[in-house]
Hints:
Blueprint: H1 2-31, H2 36-74, E1 82-86, H3 93-100, H4 113-120, E2 126-134, E3 138-145, E4 148-153, E5 158-162, E6 167-171, E7 180-182, H5 191-202, H6 205-210, E8 211-215, E9 222-226, E10 231-235, H7 240-250, E11 257-259, E12 267-268
Parallel strand pairs: 1-3, 7-8, 10-11
Antiparallel strand pairs: 2-3, 4-5, 5-6, 8-9, 9-10, 11-12
Pfam families: FtsQ_DivIB_C, POTRA_1
Region (Disordered): 1-46
Protein name: FtsQ-type POTRA domain-containing protein
Amino acid sequence: MTTTRQRAGQRPERRRTRSRRRTTEELRSRRGRRPESARARTGTGVTRRKALRRRWVALLSVLTVAGLVYVLFFTSLLGVRSVEVVGAESIPAEQVREVAQVPDRRAMLRVDTDDIAARVATLPGVATVDVSRSWPSTIEIAVTERTPIGFYNTGEALFLVDTGGVVYKEIPEPPKGFPELKLAEVGPRDPATRAVTEVLASLPGQLRERVTVLRAESPGSVEFTLADGKVVRWGDAEQADRKGKVLAALMTRKGKIYDVSSPELPTVS
């Protein structure tokens, strides 16, 4: 009976010990954990710091872009300091600069290149103009000059005519080495002018150098006079190579007028 009571008395003691152990472990684990509310507050703080950092980065980016725009468009830091003229031979480069009127020290990005090109294109002898920016501070004006092929006498003044039939520059006297274009009208839209310029450009070099006068009442009636007074009736601008060969053979014969307008039936008179 004594043994039984002792065992019976020991059982509750063991139960209390286990219960105490569990309670102690729970307390220890709870001490190592943060309350839910504290964790929430910590997460919110981190989020706010990240958001604030992003706002500062965005603000600095905007300020940087605004500063670059201001420097590029509204200061002379990258402004025009020189104007370079390329391709001008018969036209003085200083004359091109004067007409171009490029604003000194103006921000490069604010320079209107189209306006500059339009002003330079008004110069006699200029066929095309290309204006570009050469960083950091140079405006480049590339000029293509007109190529004269002859001159035109209006009865009051003499003018050079280019390969496109454009009358572009007044001259004081007939230029050496260039033929006179005796036409009712000279211009790039005139059919007779186009035919004459095309025929002249298609002639062999030695023959072209001997031409002194070109005439045409229509695109199909081109004729020219040579330095020795001989007249060549060329016709239209077609079959230029064949006409040139026939004319070379035909001019071995004596004559005043050489007609190769129909190269199949050339005549000399």
